[in-house]
Amino acid sequence: MSSISGISNGSPAATDMQRLRRAAVHEPFGRIVGKYLFGLSLALVPFGLLFNDYYSINILTFVYLMAGLACAWNIIGGFGGQFSLAHGVFFAAGAYIPAQFYLKYGVSPWLTAPAAAAVVATAAVLISWPTFRLRGPFFAIATMALNEVAAVLANYSDSLTGGARGLLIPFKASFSHMIFVERWKYCALMFAFMALTLAVVVVIRQSRLGYYLLAVREDEDSARASGVNVLAVKLWGMGISAALTSVGGTLFAMFIRFLDPPTLLSLPDIGVKFALLSLIGGIGTVWGPVLGAFFIIPAENFIRASLGGLPGAHLVVLGLLLMLAALFLKKGIVGAAAALWRRVRATP
Amino acid sequence: MENLFTILFIGLWLGGIYGLVSIGLTLIFGVIRITNFAHGEVLMVGMYGTYLAYSWLGLNPYLAVVVVVPVMFVFGVLIQRVLMQPLLDEPLMQMFASFGLLMFLQNLVLMLTRGASLGIPSSGRADNLSIAGINLSLGHVLAFVASTVIVIALHFFLRHTMMGKAIRAVTQDKRAAATMGINVNRIYRLTFGLGTAITGVASVFLTPIYTLSPSIGGDFVLAAFAVVVLGGMGSIWGAYFAGLIIGVTEAAAGFYIDPALKSAVWFLIFIIVLIVRPSGLLGTVGAEEVGLREQH
Amino acid sequence: MRMHKWLFALSTVCALYSTATLAADPIKIGEINPFSGPLAKYGLELSRGHELAIDEINAKGGLLGRKVEMITGDATNPQQAIATVDQLANRDKVNLFSGTYMSPVSAAASDAAQRYNLLYWETIATAQELTERGLPNFVRTGPNAASYAIEAVAAINNLIAGAYGKKPGDLKIWIEHEDLSFGTSIADTLKTLLEKEGVKPIGVSAHSFKAIDLNDTVLRIKQGNPDLLIEIGYVPDGNLLLRNLRSQGYKIPGIMYLVTGDAPETLEAVGADALEGLLVVSYPRTNLPNTFSPGGDHYLAAYRAKYKQEPAATLGMTAYAGMQMLFDAVTAANSTDPDKVRAAAAKMDKPLGSYPGGYGVKFDSNFQNTRALPVVVQWQSGVPVTVFPKEAASAGVALKNFPRR
User: C328 lies in which domain range?
Assistant: First the structure.
């Protein structure tokens, strides 16, 4: 019998794993890069078209940001199958920490963003270490509880987060402040963030970590029996996901420049949104979260604008959409498109 | 010393409320293994339904039980049939679906009421009781009594009626139950309906105490999850006692530490329980793992 | 002869036509409020107040000879605020902005408006930071958080202490507030002002406005045994606190609510008996005497005529007055440019009682109107009656059942 950790020692089970891995994920490097660049350039088209339409540029900025954040969530939520509702906490931490360093000591967010990401990733790993013993809904509930505790604490501690009144970052435009006069510069920044998270996602998908994450999602016990260190895989996924989410939080902070617990830690607006976008786009796929963001966020704004006078109407629609997607569109837009493509190709 | 007793009583009635709200949730989870994140909104719908029964039909809120509970039962059956049953083997999708339901219900009520604050007018002085020198309100005492009655009735139902035994059979092993001729899907629908109906009872007892708003469900749902987890997923007596424990803890924390921190206090307890003993007080060890595994 | 008549008629028509085209370039005001979401009804009420003032000035020939038009923009959070401002500024080319029911929305929207160098004339949002952050396009006409604290202290000094037969410094005061920015900022200011007067509150305690039980809070207050309880919160927690107080059988001699507590929903929730004697510091109402609040009845009549219902919230009249102040400032500046309007506003000096609601105009260096104070009402037999300041109280009105014995 192969030992539990005998993945690469040439034992029969290990060779099977290696063969499977190669078959499952092997794609020529050139093709991967090609698809990545192609997808990015498609995503860039609206930017070029809407450059001068200020309202649309704002929405596009938010689309790029949420696409990146959804991609980050997808690493642990989609690939790893761990429904985390704690990502709002990572987002908020990534917003508060650089904001405070900027406000109190004048340190540029460009410097503090990666540092904060590292801190948040470490904290995420430490918090999830015990929490990952829980499966499925229990894990979701525990992470939801974490979000609530963070909201209460953020509200309570004036010195750390500005408490209930929050933090106001005054407008002093400069590149080093990450504060810009022109809206399109923010849009470009968010696009870069999305490109970064997508690159990480693509790399993970092609790597062993990605393969293990998928294995854990499919059947955690079998994965463990095959010798995958399930806990390590989950922690890595969570750490990377948290780090990227934190960076998104920093960008959000310098864009909106108004931070308070309701804005950052609201589950329906932030925590659940990441998951929602991933689901509708195609959970566990590379491009799903991006498509989800491109579809949902403009739609949400459009519905809110047209049904404006009726309070809550647009969220009724969104809720309905979410239920329908869970029932009928499980593979998301990506899955539906793939199925359609297969059917088209299959017809003689 | 007098304070201690008052806190204890406050905690007990609060625990009664928590128990009422959580028993339905734990039943649904214990049997069907679904986490319904929209549970708070189901409670909220029941509360607005009670208000409607009062304002349209002129019913005394407590009498509205007769109307609200059957309607909630049907509502629960519908949710199970339409939303949850198709997703039985897909827990991730269930969670998404229940979040969708949450957003849908909350905002539907917002849309229909246009954000107006509704509340059943208070009858004034008739409300107060004084037991052993401790002051309580009738509404609170009734809620505690209702909670106790319900858990006892449910216990009897599950132990001694055919239907109840069928439910327990499905909980233990749905395949075996199916081979015994039990229609599993029907049991699931019945259970969801029952859990929702019990939540309907909770709504009726809560409506006279609070000013309603579409988001009021959210104020209860996190506490409900904490109670369910602490008590043990699927254990109704667990939910009842855990409710009391959390109620007393919350009241004590609010009084002795700081009211602003009280929800953080019991949340932390809840997280610790989840990590140290996820099966809760009265749940079977390993139950938290069974949740996702298909019963083969 | 007939030719002359025709010529005359023709020239009159031409003259009329040319004056009509002169006023064709309207002044557009971008109105930012939550129009969707749970606070929509307040956002709507606010904009109605603005709209009535706009109708009024258009009937009088417009502002700077131009018709005034309101273009609404919905925003329920800071991101939406930025997007909406961008849209109104670029697509609709508004000349200035006004608003706003939510302080976070106001903060983000006014900041975004500054990018376009457009004035942001705030009539309602109360957070202190809005006028303390030094934004060069921002002006606030309505009360801010501190105004409530100021009025509360004035009431304590001039109305309440006397009713107790004590000196203010001897009053035992407990401050209870909801724990978000709204309650916290007012509570902090109140505490500071009281301490400056040598009145140290015996307790300051926070609670969540979403709490499902406040009995533990009630017990703490009971331990402190205050003469006066001051509560700053929203409707849900305000109502719950009163209910819990009643169920505990705890009759505090005097209770004063700040900002909320005077609406019908509270009466419904708690009953006239439990409310009897409760003081509330809130926006001025439409039934104040004309000597104190000129034009209040005009607002009420216009509201009823246009919207076919009673005003839904008291903030409408304060918004209405605030918009009138804008028109006065713009007229004085002869421009909508933010610097010019602010310069003209800085010179404005109108005493209390110049506008509906009893407001005056005198901006401080932060462009906060210092003559915008709420009033104090007392629940008497299920009706909120204005009792303070004296000028706002109708003839024959007096404090009743206060303190309770």
Answer: 22-143+292-347
Give the nearest chain A residue to B280 (CA atoms): A138
Q: Is residue C405 part of a domain?
A: no
Task: Read off the pLDDT of residues A60-106 as tens digits, 9 standing for 90 and up.
Answer: 999 999 999 999 999 999 898 888 999 999 999 999 999 999 999 98
Q: Which long-range contacts (CB under 8 A, 24 or more apart) does C92-96 make?
A: C92/C28, C92/C30, C93/C28, C94/C28, C94/C29, C94/C30, C94/C118, C95/C27, C95/C28, C95/C29, C95/C336, C96/C27, C96/C29, C96/C30, C96/C120, C96/C121, C96/C336, C96/C338, C96/C341
DSSP state of C63: B
Chain A residue numbers with beta carbons less than 8 Å from the beta carbon of B269 are none
- B268 CB contacts (<8 Å, ≥6 apart)? A149
Q: Rounded mean pLDDT of chain C?
A: 89
Query: pLDDT by residue (tens digit) across C249-291?
Result: 888 999 999 999 998 888 888 888 888 999 999 999 998 988 8
Whether residues C133 and C160 share a domain: the answer is no
Q: Does C249 touch chain B (CB under 8 A)?
A: yes
Residue C236 is part of a domain; what is its CATH number?
3.40.50.2300
Q: Which residues does A127 contact at the CB level (< 8 Å), separation at least 6?
A: A86, A146
ipTM of the complex model = 0.84
C297 shares a domain with C321 = yes
The whole-angstrom separation of Cα B56 and Cα B112 is: 15
Same domain? For C153 and C268 the reply is yes
Q: Are residues C132 and C150 in the same domain?
A: no
Q: How many structural domains comprise chain C?
A: 2
Residue A19 domain-assigned (yes or no) = no
Express each pLDDT in A267-307 by its tens digit: 777 888 898 899 888 888 899 999 999 999 998 888 887 77
Mutation for A interface: C181, C182, C184, C204, most A CBs within 10 A: C181
Q: Are residues C307 and C261 in the same domain?
A: no
Chain A residues near residue B102 by CB distance under 8 angstroms = 319
Which chain C residue lies closest to B249 (C-alpha atoms)? C216
